[in-house]
C-alpha cells in the first residue's frame, strides 16, 4: 500500500527516523525530536501539492503499520545570489528509508522503480538522483537495481566522519550545476 504522507503518520515516521538502527550509515542524520518529523512530513506533503509527486508512506496492507517511506521529490536550488525563476537548478531526489525489520525484502527497489517512472513521466527534463554514503552497500544496490548509475564520488562535505565518501547515482549524465545541487 502506498499513501501520500499526512500528519496522521507523524508518530510512526518519527519512530522510524529516530531509530538508530535506521541510521547506522549516517548517525548524525537521525531525528532526535518529534518536531523534526513534523517538519519533514510538512515538506513532503508540500512536494505532492507542488509537483504531484513525493515520498509515499509504505504499508503492507491498508491500515497496517508504516514500514517506511520511499519516493521522489523535486529539490530546487537558486544558482545565483538572487532568486529568479530562470536561475534555479532542480532534480528529482530519490529517497528510501525503512524499518530494519523489513529491510532486504525488496520494498525500496519496488517502490523506487514506480517513483522513478512517475517522476520521468511528470517532469522528464529533470534528472533522478540518489545520493548516499559509500559504505551503505545496501542503498547502492537499490540505486543500481532501479537503473541509476554512479555519476560522482567525492568526500562528503560537512559529514562528521572525515573519511565518509558521498556517491551520486543518477538516471543520466549530470551537468556541473546539477551535480552542485545534488551535493548541497
TrEMBL record:
Domain spans labelled N-acetyltransferase: 3-148
Which PANTHER family does the UniProt entry name for this protein? GNAT FAMILY, PUTATIVE (AFU_ORTHOLOGUE AFUA_3G00765)-RELATED-RELATED, N-ACETYLTRANSFERASE DOMAIN-CONTAINING PROTEIN
Name of the protein in its database record:
GNAT family N-acetyltransferase
Species of provenance: Brevibacterium picturae
Amino acid at each position: 500500500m502506498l499513501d501520500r504522507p499526512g500528519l496522521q503518520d507523524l508518530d510512526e515516521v518519527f519512530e522510524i527516523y529516530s531509530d538508530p538502527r535506521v541510521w547506522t550509515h549516517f548517525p548524525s542524520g537521525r531525528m532526535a525530536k518529534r518536531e523534526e518529523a513534523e517538519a519533514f512530513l510538512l515538506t513532503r506533503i508540500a512536494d505532492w501539492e507542488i509537483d504531484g509527486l513525493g515520498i509515499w508512506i509504505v504499508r503492507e496492507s491498508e491500515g497496517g503499520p508504516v514500514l517506511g517511506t520511499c519516493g521522489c521529490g523535486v529539490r530546487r536550488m537558486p544558482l545565483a545570489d538572487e532568486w529568479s525563476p530562470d536561475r534555479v537548478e532542480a532534480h528529482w531526489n530519490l529517497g528510501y528509508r525503512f524499518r530494519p525489520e523489513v529491510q532486504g525484502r525488496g520494498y525500496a527497489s519496488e517502490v523506487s522503480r514506480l517513483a522513478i517512472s512517475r517522476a520521468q513521466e511528470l517532469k522528464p527534463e529533470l534528472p533522478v538522483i540518489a545520493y548516499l554514503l559509500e559504505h551503505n552497500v545496501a542503498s547502492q544496490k537499490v540505486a543500481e537495481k532501479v537503473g541509476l548509475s554512479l555519476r560522482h564520488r567525492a568526500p562528503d562535505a560537512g559529514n562528521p566522519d572525515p573519511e565518509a565518501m558521498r556517491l551520486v547515482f543518477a538516471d543520466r549524465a549530470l551537468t556541473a550545476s546539477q551535480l552542485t545541487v545534488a551535493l548541497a
